[in-house]
Design goal:
The complex is a heterodimer. Chain A is 42% helix and 14% strand. Chain A has 22 helices and 15 strands. Chain A has helices at 14-18, 21-34, 74-85, 108-111, 129-134, 139-147, 150-160, 172-181, 202-209, 211-225, 239-255, 285-292, 321-339, 372-379, 413-418, 437-451, 457-474, 481-496, 500-504, 507-515, 517-525, 545-550, and strands at 6-11, 41-46, 58-61, 65-67, 95-96, 99-100, 188-193, 229-235, 270-276, 316-320, 349-356, 362-367, 389-394, 400-403, 427-432. Chain A is globular and about 75 Å long. Chain B is α+β, with helices and mostly antiparallel strands. Chain B has a 5-stranded mixed sheet, covered by helices on one side. In chain B, strand 3 and strand 4 (88-92) form a beta hairpin. The chains are: A alpha/beta, B alpha+beta. Chains A and B meet through strand 1, helix 5, helix 6 and helix 11 of A and helix 1, helix 3 and strand 2 of B.
Amino acid sequence: MKIYRIHALICAGAQCIAAGGNGFEDALKDELKKHELLEEVNIIETGCMGSCQLGPLMVVYPEGVIYTKLKPEDAKEIVEEHFLKGRDVKRLMWKEKETVLPSLSEIPFFAKQTKVVLRNCGIINPEDINEYIAQGGYEALGKTITEMTREDVIQVIKDSGLRGRGGAGFPTGKKWQLAYEQDSPIKYIVCNADEGDPGAYMNRSVLEGDPHSVLEGMAIAGYAIGAQKGFIYVRAEYPLAVKRLEIAIKQAKQIGVLGKNILGTNFSFDIELRIGAGAFVCGEETALINSIEGKRGEPRKKPPFPVQKGVFGFPTVINNVETLANIPVIIEKGVKFFRSFGTEKSPGTKVFALAGKVNITGLVEVPLGTPLRTIIYDIGGGIQEGHSFKAAQTGGPSGGVIPSQYIDVPMDYESLASLGAIMGSGGLIVMDETSCMVDVAKFFLKFTVDESCGKCTPCREGTRQMLNILERITSGKGRMEDLELLEKLGNTIKLTSLCGLGQTAPNPVLTTLRYFRDEYIAHIKDKKCPSNVCKLSSEVKNERKVFNRSSS
Amino acid sequence: MDKIKSIEDLRKLREQAKAFLRTRQGEVKVKIYISMGTVGIAAGSRDVLLVILDELQKRNFTDVQIIERGSMGLDVEEPVVGVDRDGVVVYYGHVTPEMARQIVASHVINGQIISDWVIAKE
């Protein structure tokens, strides 16, 4: 293989590309060509490195220097100074409190994270299987199919305590065991990559930055339950993830870690992509199954559960992207390693998409049970512009808000549930005192109203009625009875909806009512929005303040 | 790409691939420092750098990082090349492209310091 003096890793996650990453890369290549450096400098497009607000990013090795917010016109200076003469371009380097910090390990944003799922994201070239293999990739699959029985594999995953990272937190080993016990000649593994929560992109980043870890996790799952075929259900809005998955599957088949007789054994496993049209409900497992089968993406009644009757009526294990990316690590490094992170009941790490009014937005991976304060202040650098923390929304539209008095809550499944919020797939939107909680509830409810598939009445009609009430309140026509009505409706929808979408849709309203009731009352009685967001407030209109910034 | 047919093949491929990623990981046997101040460049350190790369490639030696540095101040000795191996950094002065090839062969790869050309140790 060729020796390069410099490896320049350019973040090519969707955020950085949207922020102009490609323009910089093209300019950089031109400059390298001009200076005849193409033979010395290896340019690698990686997946998301995490700190999206500062993109487009580039990390230059061997020094490990990080350049941020790169524009095409910066390419000349970097090439002429850094690549030719070895002088870092200070003005473009990552700055921490006005001091220029040179390497990844010295930046709190990175130093305080624990990367298990994102272990390779931003470090390897996701379009080159060799780089994944260099990092120990497919070693776990090799070990599984040559040294372990199917029962062994399931036992290891059970012992690890891994719980589904899609949100509900069901024990992964138990799910595999149930599918293993089904007597059927055909079984399937499905990777749920239909990520639709507003503000969340954990799964997309794994698929874009380290697609092979998901393929490897699926193949191991396939071996364990006795499946020979897997589907990745990914939404069409993720074109880069789709492209990288296609490349990864092709390369894996070429070298023989997917396909027939993997590594010379009797085990064969193949993976097919299924592109979803981007409906939130298709992330729900039974709706997802319908969609894979070519039917309308509407949920089915459970039971039978997918492990009994899934895709085309055969036993099917559906795991989330992040869950699957954990599998190779557990097999290769062992249960003890995995359990060294997180809590007794929630072992391992969790990836959060940190958005909203924190200083550094981006992807963050921390041990489960890490206090919310650590994520917001130590990693996220605190609240923007000296404002104060008001609340955090976890779990997207299925979740709820955590008010400031609970900022020390450990981020694990049980603690969040006890506050009425959920872990969800990992969306984490931070709000300060300029956010109106009624408006926040309305935003999420509007989303679920739009995304309801319409199959069951509570979800189709009930959420619409709740939204009407919220609109009434924010336009100054609310009545005090509306609050009880919202609670009654919300609780009924939770109990009677067919699938998870409806069962969780009222959560943002119910939790904001629980913790910020006085704000609702201010809207109704004083006809005032305390945060100056809603229409009735006054001259100042700060429309959708929370969410504008989070998408940057 | 060839098909790998056993776990041994996979491990072989891994070793090869690992060598390629060393530049990014810092765990290398040898680090080569090249002085790239204005004086160094004027004295020809860029040519020396290219020769070093070429020689390493020819000998397929990947356990190495090449690091550009500013001037050490010892302008009279430029081009200066430092080799960090076995816990000692040895600096060579007035390095020509021909000398650079020999430094790679003797010192970088085989650990034999060429004492005649050494100007300093650290």
